[in-house]
Design goal:
alpha/beta, TIM Barrel, single chain, 8-stranded mixed β-sheet
């Protein structure tokens, strides 16, 4: 295929620079991969073809479902609603405990086996569901589908749909600032509060994720955070308390935190997170972060949203069944009128 044909049928990547000897440097995420001709980045989806960088996964869909918004998880963003959720392939982290490794770590030939779906077709599918509030970019890491997400999120905005990113937060500031006005809500994984954990188990770094959290928090976008609690990896109480304090001090004490139970997957075969550890971390987090929840397990705590002033339940949850009868049309407590951090 000639370079002219490549440019016609493939999506050239944003945020890279051309170098000598047909090399390119990707500037989308902090890896900043330096790629010789024919080489693919850490994400497995961005390739140097004839001295230009292309997104191999552009328009390639691995999954599409109408999900409860709570599944993202987002508990304070249109609670009880449904959102059209799509995923592609690739990820700029290589988590040894990845829950979706089949699509996050694709083989080279997967892209030739899947049809290309124009962004406009996704918008049509989303609009066909009358109860749907928007599009969630999820399942794999949406940052590595950056160009496709930009196209789709722009069209979605024009049609009055909400855009949601479920992300690891590992992105450079310039591309983050470009996409930020298009995204209404984020759930960002904060996998640990330990650089050595990130290096050893994800192949990435903690510091850029913290910068992403601060940038998103300063924007108009809604933000919730998820931490997967892994036995013998990130379940040390003292380090978790440092993380909670950082979140409260840097992002605010109304920050919404989800604690998720770990199950063995991919290259990491630890024991399932014991219930008592999740209860312990929930109690630690609640000392600074009132809006803390527990997921992937049924417990008597960490499910419902309770008004901190009058103590009435404002959002009831059982699994993915949700009733937000205690919120008024502004997302505040219907019982005592206290202002609450909900988007409705």
């Amino acid at each position: 295929m000639s370079l002219v044909e490549i440019r016609k049928y493939m999506q050239q990547a944003l945020f890279y620079e051309r170098l000598e000897d047909m090399k390119v440097k990707c500037l989308l995420c902090p890896h900043e991969c330096l790629l010789s001709e024919g080489k693919i980045g850490v994400c497995r989806v961005r390739k140097n073809i004839s001295g230009e960088l292309y997104a191999l996964n552009d328009g390639i869909i691995s999954s599409a479902n109408l999900d409860p918004i709570e599944k993202k998880p987002l508990y304070h963003f249109y609670p009880g609603s449904l959102i059209f959720s799509i995923g592609s392939y690739g990820c700029n982290m290589h988590c040894r405990f990845c829950q979706n490794w089949e699509i996050s770590q694709p083989t080279d030939n997967i892209f030739s086996l899947r049809p290309i779906v124009p962004a406009s077709e996704i918008i049509k599918a989303a609009l066909n569901h009358k109860e749907n509030i928007g599009i969630a970019y999820t399942y794999n890491e949406p940052i590595v589908s950056y160009e496709y997400v930009i196209k789709m999120a722009t069209l979605a905005k024009e049609k009055g749909l909400k855009n949601v990113m479920v992300s690891n937060g590992f992105i450079n500031q310039e591309p983050l600032l470009r996409i930020l006005p298009l995204i209404d809500a984020w759930n960002i994984d904060l996998k640990a509060f330990d650089e050595s954990f990130y290096k050893r188990l994800t192949g990435a770094q903690l510091a850029p994720v913290l910068e992403t959290l601060k940038t998103v928090r300063k924007s108009k976008a809604h933000l919730e955070i998820t931490t997967l609690v892994i036995p013998n990896e990130n379940d040390e109480a003292s380090k978790f308390k440092k993380m909670v304090n950082w979140l409260a001090d840097e992002l605010g004490e109304d920050t919404i935190l989800h604690l998720s139970r770990y199950f063995p997957r991919y290259h990491h075969q630890s024991t399932i997170t014991p219930a008592h550890k999740l209860v312990e971390f929930y109690n630690i987090a609640r000392q600074r972060l009132y809006w803390t929840y527990v997921g992937n397990i049924e417990l008597d705590i960490g499910n419902n949203s309770i008004c901190p002033k009058c103590k009435n339940i404002v959002v009831w949850r059982k699994g993915y069944h949700t009733a937000a009868k205690g919120l008024d049309e502004s997302g505040n407590c219907r019982f005592c009128k206290t202002s609450l951090p909900f988007v409705v």
